[in-house]
Each structure stands twice: as structure tokens, then as C-alpha cells.
Amino acid sequence: MPTDRTDPEPLTPYQYPNPPEALPEIVIPNAIPTDERLWVPQAENVWFRPLCLNASQGYWMNLLRVRKSGVLSRHRHPQAVHGFVLKGRWKYLEHDWWAEEGGYVFEPPGETHTLYVPEDVQEMITYFQVNGVMYYTDPYGKGMGYEDVFTKIDMCRKHFEEVGLGSDYVKQFIR
């Protein structure tokens, strides 16, 4: 990129096409939806709202909504996870810190933790980027199941079909 040129028209958009292989962007005006059908059930009183299901790179980004207190899940991540708390609060039983509204959490690869929502929280919503897999375990590390981007896509496909949006509704989130 030349550094000796100045842009005479800074508000002029880029004038060339993007690469033909580039995937389309995803724009979701109301990420926290008012239409309850967009929340995919994951467990009793637990839902997720898909934002990006990246099958080509093996990650997903979603909102996790919990409307109950107690232990949600115990799981391990072989890759990093990023979270941003939009509403409520939660913690991992293995740590003394709390993830609270407006807070960011980085979960390093290899960590196993138990997500807990306290009794005084009516609703928790956290934006998560999960890379790779969530490997569910018992307290001693014995495998109990897993989720990855492909199981998330399947869950969405089935749910959206059941609520009348059609199984193809999930395609807008897949890259």
C-alpha cells in the first residue's frame, strides 16, 4: 500500500469488488431477539441464540441465556473461548472470580470448569465465542458428551423446523 498518497475523498467507499471467494458478512440488527423462536433450547431453562456457526473453521458465536440457578455444565475446552456478559452474572466453581454484566472472560485452552449461575440471578445472557469443542465431563474428567459447531447446526436446524421457521433458517448463520 503506498504511503505517499493522501485520500482526497475520505468518505468515498472502496471502489473495487471484494474477492469472489469471500463469504458474505452476517449482520444481525437485534442480536438479543424479542422473537422467542430464535432461542434454541439447549437444556431445561437454557437456550442459545446463534450468531455465527463457522463450519469451515470449527467455531461458533452465540448468546447463551440461562433462566435458572445452579450448575449449568462441567466441560473442557481444547481451544480458547471468549465471553462477554451482557446480563446477570455467573462463575466457574473452580475459580474465585465472578463474570458480571459488562465483564469479559478469556478461557484458556485445556481448562475444565463448572459453570454456575447463583440464585439471585433471574436471567443471565453471555456472548460466547467457542473454538473447537465443548467436552462435557464428570467431576473426575470422565467424558459425558460433547458439542461442536456441527452439533450446534443440527440443534438449530431441528429447532427452527419445529417452531415454523424452516430447517433452512439456520443457513444464514453458517460460514
Return the string of H and E elements.
Answer: EEEEEEEEEEEEH
How large a portion of the residues is in β-strands, by DSSP E?
35-45%
- Biggest sheet descriptor: 6 strands, antiparallel
The pLDDT mean sits at: 95
Which regions are unreliable across 5 or more consecutive residues at pLDDT < 50?
A: none
Radius of gyration: 19 Å
- Overall outline: globular
Q: How far apart are the first and last residues' alpha carbons, in Å?
A: 29 Å
Helicity, as a percent range? under 10%
Structural class: mainly beta
| Sheet with the most strands: spatial strand order | 1-2-3-10-5-8
The strand count comes to: 12
* Oligomeric state: single chain
Q: What's the helix count?
A: 1
Protein name: 2,4'-dihydroxyacetophenone dioxygenase family protein
GO molecular function, one term: dioxygenase activity
Domain ChrR-like cupin: 32-121
Region (Disordered): 1-20
Description:
The chain is mostly beta strands. The protein contains 1 helix and 12 strands; from the N terminus they run ββββββββββββα. It has a 6-stranded antiparallel β-sheet with strand order 1-2-3-10-5-8, with helices on one face. Strands 7-6-9-4-11-12 form a 6-stranded antiparallel β-sheet. The longest helix has 14 residues, at 149-162. The two termini are 29 Å apart. The mean pLDDT is 95.
